[in-house]
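Blinded run. Sample ID left blank on purpose so nobody reads anything into the name before looking at the predicted structure. Input follows.
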Amino acid sequence: MAAREYTEEELTLFQEIENGRTFDKGEELPPLYKKALKNLLWMQHDSEYSGSLGYAPWIEKAPTMQEKVVVAQIVKDEMRHASVIYKLLEGLGEDVMSHIEKTELGFKMEEDTANIGFQRLKEDYRVNIFYYGINYWEDFILFNFLMDRAAGHQLEDTLDSSYLPWKKGIEGIYKEEIMHLAHGDKWIKILAKGENKEFLQERLNLWWPRVMNVFGSTKGRSNDLYVKLGLKKRTNAVVRDVFVKEVQDMCDQAGLILPEYREEEQPQR
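Blinded prediction complete.
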């Protein structure tokens, strides 16, 4: 597919944003900018909302009373994150509640070992890792350790977003995501020293390609546009490299083996 050619007006917009132009609540947004912004906000909203629902059963199933409290806090954080993005989308004229009511954001696949690659299963906008069920405590911890770390790296870019309401809203979200991944880091060390280390490794092998697929295909061009619009600072490929190095270092410390990821072997859309 040939790369999209931008109009003179759009090229001027890219240059203005590179020179520091920002947009605030209530401002009229250029069509290309507004479409890209809404795409990212919908993806974040549905992912946060679905993630909260996926975590919720682990309030009851967490191994200790203290962990039940921690999981409950994480569930609350994720739903609060969704509510922040909800308000931003409403401010852009989107009917978020109707969307929530007609989509199955609580849907989870029944097959435990499935790998759907980059495929979509529903008509919502969530990152597709949220289609998978969290079936074991090890899964919950790996989600904190891997997915919350990936989200943290991606959200870090939004701290400099050219859309000021999102930039402001993301500050608290980012801090809470860092707390979630710290919980994962703590428990990875605990589980890696325990008698179920082999099972932890099996679950890491399962979840690793799922998490890597979150960064999308390296053939995709949408991230270049997000960077041009100041909605992201780095492409997903750059963020992924930083993320992988960090996870590799932590797995080495815990005595876990990080599986090889082959994008070309992942199921396609």
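Unblinding after everyone has recorded impressions. Residues 167 and 247 are 26 Å apart (CA to CA).
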